[in-house]
Amino acid sequence: PTKLRVSEAISGSNLGANIKIQGWVRSVRPQKKNLFLHVNDGSSLQSLQIIATFCCSQIRLLTFGCAVEVTGLLKQSPNQKQPVELEADKIRVVGECNPLDFPFKIKERHAVEYIRQFPHLRCRTNAFSSLLRIRSEATAAIHSYFKKNGFVQIHTPIITSNDCEGAGELFAVQPQRPENDVDEKFFSVPAFLTVSGQLHLEVMSGAFSKVYTFGPTFRAENSQSRRHLAEFYMVEAELSFTQSIEDLTEVMEDIFKSSTEYVLAQCAEDVALFHKHVSPGHRVSSKGMTYSEAVDILNRSSQNFVFPTEWGCDLQKEHEKYLVKHCGNIPVFVTDYPYDLKPFYARDNQDHPEHTAAAVDLLVPGVGELCGGSLREERLDLLRTRLEEVGLEDAYSWYLDLRRFGSIPHGGFGLGFERYLQCILGVDNIKDVIPFPRFSHSCLL
Ligand code: 4AD
Ligand code: MG
């Protein structure tokens, strides 16, 4: 027999063939003469219908969740519901599954909160396996966007000695040593899990015109919110010789649109299980607004916000949500934030009456902030002064070097990959779009 994946068997191109499939039983339906099984192997949302017309010696072991290997004849199905079915001549139970102990019950729709309690088993549910396929395709779409557009991928380090965002949300990295082992420090400097690959990308933008990285980033955020994780994936791009924020917003918009188009087309069946916030076409607000305009809009609104909306205060989720709604529930850019709200690397908008930085956030329906980016301060004197003000000029002498040796105007941004998935699929909680969520008080598995 030819070994096929379920998706290949269902495609119908192997009708009449003697095939073998391997997977997990998603449903069991005994009838008078026949036994109907549905077997799934993660290759598609669809399961393959198996029809067993004989009395299988292992029949009592064929339960929801067990692993099987089935060989038989692939035929056209008389039933409209599925195009093909496999008439089994041999069914072998590879791994048994006691349905009384298995946390998921056949035909039951479990709540996401319940499913989340079983990070080691939740890939066995339809909804989560769909999510994982979509996540995989969205990853491919993002890499493909960058490849098509001439970006070089850089593997930025996970362990680093810098705190790019300066927000004090670092996880320290130290070797695990026996208690009274008075070894020297492993690294001679304090080391952390990276909060962003930006500074390493900035190094590379001294030699490449377009670079990107896409990997895990870490923040010791003491937040139980529905859009924060301690470990999340970030897509970061850095562009050399950028003159304006529009150079950045163009790329952000392009990635958002092209990846979303790809995912909606490539994973139509899986995506249909979710309540999308984004429909094909998904406009990004062409207007955009400055931070000052955003503050005006918030102050003119009749809504009572919990957090202050004065000029100089950071925009909170409630504000971001309001602004997105105000623009017709489509993604919107907010630019030129107060200088003091932004990290040391953000470029000073010296020509503005208010003291702002050339920074931009992309706000999207469902989640609020999806991307954060800025032009970087490329002027040596201004950057040195800023670093001196925060007492970091020694730690960042290498960063100042980048402005000494062939400095160029440049800028970039980071896109939170889980928030992107939340946005396009309408998933309320960020813990439901990552295989193994890590957040405060929780590091299961
Ligand atoms: O706005 P952030 O902090 O920007 C940076 O880290 C820049 N250094 C990126 C750059 O310019 N290269 O983070 C970027 C995005 C946010 O807009 C948000 O979508 C996501 O990362 N993000 C988180 N996602 C999940 N959990 C968290 N704790 C997150 N913190 C930020
Ligand atoms: Mg941000």
UniProtKB/TrEMBL annotation:
Domain Aminoacyl-transfer RNA synthetases class-II family profile: 132-435
Biological processes, Gene Ontology terms: asparaginyl-tRNA aminoacylation
Domain of life: Eukaryota
GO molecular function ontology, one term from the record: asparagine-tRNA ligase activity
EC number: 6.1.1.22
Keyword annotations: Aminoacyl-tRNA synthetase, ATP-binding, Ligase, Nucleotide-binding, Protein biosynthesis
GO cellular component, one term: mitochondrion
Pfam family, any one: tRNA-synt_2
SUPFAM superfamilies membership: Class II aaRS and biotin synthetases, Nucleic acid-binding proteins
Family per record: Belongs to the class-II aminoacyl-tRNA synthetase family.
Name of this protein: asparagine--tRNA ligase
Gene name of the record: nars2
